[in-house]
Amino acid sequence: MADLIPVDYTAADYADIRADVLRRAERLIPEWTSRSEADFGVVMAELFAHTADLNNYGIDRLLRESFLPTASTLTNVLLLAEMLGYIPHGPVPAQGQITLVSDPGGPEVEIPAGTVFVSDYIDAIDQPIYYETVETVTVPADGAELDVDIVEGRTVVKAEIGMSTGQQAQRIVIPQQRILHGSVRIYVQDEHADLEWLWIPRLTYASGSDLVFTSRPDASGATIISFGDGVTGAVPPLGAKIYATYRVGLGGAGNLPAGSLPVISSPVSGVTIQVDSAGKPMVTALDGGADRESIEEIRRNAALAYSAYGRAVTTADFAKIALTVPGVVAANAISSVASSVIVYIAGPGRTVPADELVVSVIDQLASASAAGTRVTVSGPTIISVNFGSVSTPMRLTVAPTYRRSVVETLVRTQLNTIVASADNAFGSRISVGEVYGALAAIPGVVNVTIPVMARADSPQTGVADIVLQPWEIPVMGTATIETVGGVT
Description:
Number of domains: 5
Low-confidence stretches: none
Number of strands: 26
Structural class: alpha+beta
Strand content: 25-35%
Distance between the termini: 74 Å
Radius of gyration: 29 Å
Mean pLDDT: 91
């Protein structure tokens, strides 16, 4: 019996498989010695190696995409997060206030909900940005002023999105891109009127008669609407038309500085936007907008949320469960007595959470905590982190063959990445060594000196680790850089 020729099972790519096939051929067919690319045997060996390489690549990708820490495609990350019970948030609108004034001697003016205000044209996004009033308000008569809440985006009212098949667990896709988080309202045709069905985080919370739905974003940017199966959530009647009202916006691009909305787009007479002494529109800074969660954010938050198993015992559990509420991007909990817990949360883009988000977190934690536990939910204290100052800027030296502006942009991006890192959230420490190490690794950086690294609420002198309290979360402040060297 001929000796068995061992197989090199570590040969996974084309080159190794080809070498192993030819090695085995030497043992089996010693008289075959040609290794020319034109040799038929070599061609067959290379074809086999190519096919095996493709097969191994597919197996490796399949394994990687099956686990949340290694999945790289948004589709699979979303599916794995859903399996773990985590609902990623979509784009979140910026919010603010605008001051309106009625005409001198004129009557009071009603401003309907949905009245549109528009910014100037913005080159960076190749369009203006639209904002709407949140609710119907009345501006008092005779030149009186009123501060009005506004939110970024445009409202689409009762668009038909499909018809019920009468089947259990129906899913309908709203193809519209950039639907703002929490803005979808669903109406189902009934015998006498269109009934509004209510959104809930998970259908498992509903009974068979509850008129409810859930929604989640998909990888393409569309929104998937899911209905119940008659046991957890009702089934829309066969043939009933289904409508959706939702808001479409730009997320993080909607964050604008104060005085940025000069025009009332809707036809409203008898009222104008008040201006200050410099002639600028009296509009607060419009902030709080954020883009949909990134793959890294989903990967981290889904794993943390799942590890709490839906029950809040330790302070870590409270923080993890808070992360299961769509729109919460960071959370931390502290407690000095067993019967009381304070949970600090940050909204999308590390912003102060809206009141509705705070209420949602309180409800979620109340259902998971022990009876008698007092839960308080609060927003963060936002701490801006500054690098350099006008009088003592950072000094960046660029290598001779690198473009100066490109390297400086990379440095600024890296500083933003460090401050916004998931590891640098509530109660964290941003070390000087961490910053220097990250900047030194950027291609084209010869040397970088940071004379000032400080919190915005402290003296802007010296370099020290940024130490945050349990209720404080860092955001990028200013980076003043003086760049030398390189190619201009």
